Amino acid sequence: MRTSNHLIGLVNFLTFLLSIPILGGGIWLSSRANSTDCLRFLQWPLIVIGISIMVVSLAGFAGACYRNKFLMWLYLVVMLLIIAALIGFIIFAYAVTDKGSGRTVLNRGYLDYYIQDYSGWLKDRVSDDGYWGKISSCLRDSRACSKIGRNFNGVPETADMFFLRRLSPVESGCCKPPTDCGFSYVNETGWDTRGGMIGPNPDCMLWSNDQSVLCYQCSSCKAGVLGSLKKSWRKVSVINIVVLIMLVIFYVIAYAAYRNVKRMDNDEPAGEARMTKSHPSHFHL
């Protein structure tokens, strides 16, 4: 029994360690929500799951140390629910960020983003006028577009240099006009709209060289936020899947050890025969 308790304690300690990358992923997404992605609700389930794993692991560890079977049982029940919640969360994250990606542009290093390439609940959420007002305000406050400018030895970068840059989805969608507008490059956030062959894209009419406006009301900006969110969530989801696999393995080990503890508690005392013959043999003289 002592060996099984030690095993359960070790598994709980390792589970506690696994909660750290989950919690760290949630905190990283939270920092992104305050600076780049500007969506402040999707990271909270991950933070709650990470904290829950941490607390439950400590309870299971205490149960193993003090041989408290109730705490060990509670660990198994709650951890099973947490694993189910993590599975559901991973599926949800992949489902809402499944469709949509940037389009390659001829002779450009960056991608262009179009809202029609995305679909589903997350697109509807971001496209909602009331919610977009909060996101666009966050983007302005983060000064994402003001950071896009570059100088080389005091000389601003040329159009050819800018066209080869790999811009982030937000920088491409919100800080410059769509390429199909045909505007002429002046600087990273300034474009000459005179004489440009304005295409059918409605964003071409929404673009403004006013640094407080730019393309923050463009559909391309909404698509850029969705593209940025997809990249962030895919990075975190890889960590979550690895952690989930390890959690399942540790859970199976802890469950087997707990069953062994129960069996040893319910069996006969050590030294007593576990099996008796139904028909004992007779000695013949």
TrEMBL record:
Superkingdom as given in the UniProt entry: Eukaryota
Phylogenetic placement of the source organism: Eukaryota, Viridiplantae, Streptophyta, Embryophyta, Tracheophyta
Gene: LOC104711013
Topology term for the membrane: Multi-pass membrane protein
Predominant place of localization: membrane
Spans through the membrane: 6-29, 41-64, 70-96, 238-258
InterPro entries cross-referenced by the UniProt entry: TET_plant, Tetraspanin/Peripherin
Family stated for the protein in its record: Belongs to the tetraspanin (TM4SF) family.
Keywords annotated in UniProt: Membrane, Transmembrane, Transmembrane helix
Places the protein is found: Membrane
Organism: Camelina sativa (False flax)
Name of the protein described by the UniProt record: Tetraspanin-3-like
PANTHER family in UniProt: TETRASPANIN-8-RELATED
